[in-house]
């Protein structure tokens, strides 16, 4: 079950410049910076009420963010929703005809298990499913 708009992911070319801009815009500094080696991205998170803004910058030419920015301008890259049970949602969404980009959830930024829905099956929008990793949601390595 989808429970919350978790965050908007924004692809940026210059993470430091974007961080300064969003710090000024939102009036607060980011609460977290994180490198996600498996995705070759650096991330910065801002809290905005009950949701978040995630800035993403590629750290290698093979990064999905680097490739994305080679074709498109900076801006919204994905919309992320919190879910109660990511595996159950993956099964449900496959049965509804959505194309998932992951066979299994993988470890993402901000202490989450994540899975992405292909934009071609979601009106051109990359959708991320997020489940918090914690006592009730054991970490899975994939």
From TrEMBL:
Q: Which domain of life is it from?
A: Bacteria
| Protein keywords | Isomerase, Metal-binding
- Judged by the first EC level, this protein's enzyme class is isomerase
Q: Which Pfam families match?
A: Glyoxalase_4 (PF13669)
**EC number(s) of the enzyme?**
5.1.99.1
GO molecular function terms noted in the UniProt entry: metal ion binding; methylmalonyl-CoA epimerase activity
Provide a GO biological process annotation.
L-methylmalonyl-CoA metabolic process
Q: Where is the VOC domain?
A: 4-132
The family this protein is said to belong to: Belongs to the methylmalonyl-CoA epimerase family.
Name of this chain's protein:
Methylmalonyl-CoA epimerase
Query: From which organism does this entry originate?
Result: Hymenobacter rubripertinctus
**Upper taxonomic lineage:** Bacteria, Pseudomonadati, Bacteroidota, Cytophagia, Cytophagales
Protein encoded by which gene: mce
């Amino acid at each position: 079950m989808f429970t919350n708009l978790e965050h908007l992911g924004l692809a940026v070319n210059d993470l430091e410049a974007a961080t300064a801009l969003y710090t000024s815009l939102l009036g607060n500094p980011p609460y977290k910076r994180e490198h996600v080696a498996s995705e070759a991205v650096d991330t910065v998170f801002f809290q905005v009420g009950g949701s978040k803004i995630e800035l993403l910058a590629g750290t290698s030419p093979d990064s999905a963010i680097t490739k994305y920015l080679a074709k498109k301008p900076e801006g919204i890259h994905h919309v992320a929703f919190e879910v109660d049970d990511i595996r159950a949602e993956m099964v449900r969404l496959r049965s509804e005809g959505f194309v998932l980009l992951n066979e299994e959830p993988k470890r993402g930024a901000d202490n989450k298990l994540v899975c992405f829905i292909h934009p071609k099956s979601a009106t051109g929008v990359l959708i991320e499913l997020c489940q918090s990793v914690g006592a009730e949601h054991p970490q899975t390595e994939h």
